[in-house]
C-alpha cells in the first residue's frame, strides 16, 4: 500500500526541475539577448538550487513506500531491522482528532474519512516480525514477562495477537462444521491457520461426561451438534518453516483451543465444585473443566490423551532441536489450556519450556493448583479485560491485589489458608496483562458482557494497549472491520455510521482473519 501524495509530490519536483532547466537553456523572455555564458551560469545555478532543494526535501520528508509484493498469507520475517523497515502509511494517523467528538461524524475531513476507510478495511495486513532468536525465552515467559508488560513490548504485543489469531482459526473451523461424525478422527479437518509457517498435525476433541435425553435431539434434529458429547475443540500445529524457526530461535509447537460452543460444554462450565485432579493431592480444579479434559469419547481418546500422545510424538520427531510449547485458549479454552500445560509439564523428563497465553480465562483451580503449575515451571500470561465478568468466576471474587495483601498479614494468613480448602476457594494463575474495553476510543463505555468477553475485542484491546498510564495508543493499527461486523451494537455510532456511509462490505462469510499491523519503532 502506498500514500498517494508521496510519489506525485516527488514526480512533481522532477517535473519542475526539468522545466526550470529548459527555461534557463532558452533564455528568459524578458531578456532574449542573454549571452551563452549567462545562460550557462543560470542553468548551473538552477541545477544547484534544485539539487539542494531536493536534498532538503528528502531529508525532512518520509521515504517513498515500497509495495510489498509477497503473498499476504506468508507474513514471514525478511531480516530487516526496525530502523530499515518500510514505514506503514497508518503510522502518521492521529486518531485522537476523531475519537470522542461526535461532531466529527458530521464534519470529518476527506482525509480522515479515507483513514477510517482503511481502518475498516477487511483486508488483512501483516506486521514485520523482529528477530527474537536471542530473547525467545524471555518472550516465552522465562522471567514471567518482567519489564515487557508496562509499557507493553512491541514484539510481545505482536506475539500475543498472533496466538489469539490461532484461536480464531479454531473457532472458524468449528463453526464451519460443528457436527462430529463417528469416523472424524481418521480424517482430520482442514484448519486455515493464520500463520502459514505452521502446519496442523493433530485435531483435538473434548468430551463431556454429561448427556442429554434423546428426545432433545428429536425436537431439533438440525441442531443435534448442540447436544453431542464429543466436539472438535482445537488443534496442534508445529512451525515447519526454517526461516521462521530461525527468526523465533526455536521450533514452536502450538496448541490452540476454542471457547464454549455446545450445550453440554455450557453445562460443564457451571459444575464449579473443586475436585482433586490427582488422588490425595491438595491441588484441585473445577469439576466441569476436568470432565471435558479427561473424559474419552465413544470412538476417540480424551483431550488429555490426545495431547500427551501428540506432543511426545513431535518431541521424538524433532529430537535434538530446540523446541517450545505454546498453549493458547479463550474462555473455556483458556481453562483447558491450564490443565493441558500442567499435565504436559510432568509427562516427560525432557519436556520443552511451556507457556500459556490465555484470553478471558475463568479461574480453574485452588491456590494449591496455582502453586503446582508454578512449581512445574509452566509460565502463564493471562490477558484480562477489566470489564469481562468471566475472568472473575467461578468462586467468590476477590481482587488479586487484596488477596495478596491479606496473605501478607500474618494475623489473617492462617484463616485464608483454611479457606483455601473450601469447595469454592478458587485462585488465578500466573502473570496478568490487564486491558480495559472502556479505554477503547471505538467501543461504547457501556459495551455489553458479550462484547467484553469477545476474542476479537480482546485482540483489538491488546493491539491498542500501550501502558497502564496510557491504555490505548492513538496509532493502533488493527483493522476495525471484524469488530464492527461482530460487535456493531457495541461500537460507537460514529464508526458504524461511517462504515455504512462508505458502503463497506462486511459480509461474515467473506471475512478474512485480521492481523496486527506494524507498530511504530
UniProtKB/TrEMBL annotation:
* Pfam families listed in its UniProt record: Lipase_3 (PF01764)
Example GO BP: lipid catabolic process
The record ties this protein, via InterPro entries, to:
AB_hydrolase_fold, Fungal_lipase-type
Query: Is Chloroplast one of the keywords UniProt gives this record?
Result: yes
Q: Spans of biased composition, class Basic and acidic residues?
A: 67-77
Q: Where in the cell is it found?
A: Plastid, Chloroplast
Q: What Gene Ontology molecular-function terms does this entry list?
A: phospholipase activity
Residues of the Fungal lipase-type domain: 254-396
Region (Disordered) residue spans: 24-46, 60-86
Q: Where is the composition biased (Polar residues)?
A: 30-46
Quote the cellular component terms of the Gene Ontology held in the record: chloroplast
Q: What is its main location?
A: plastid
Q: Which UniProt keywords apply?
A: Chloroplast, Hydrolase, Lipid degradation, Lipid metabolism, Plastid, Transit peptide
Q: Which family does it belong to?
A: Belongs to the AB hydrolase superfamily. Lipase family.
Q: This chain belongs to which protein, by name?
A: Fungal lipase-type domain-containing protein
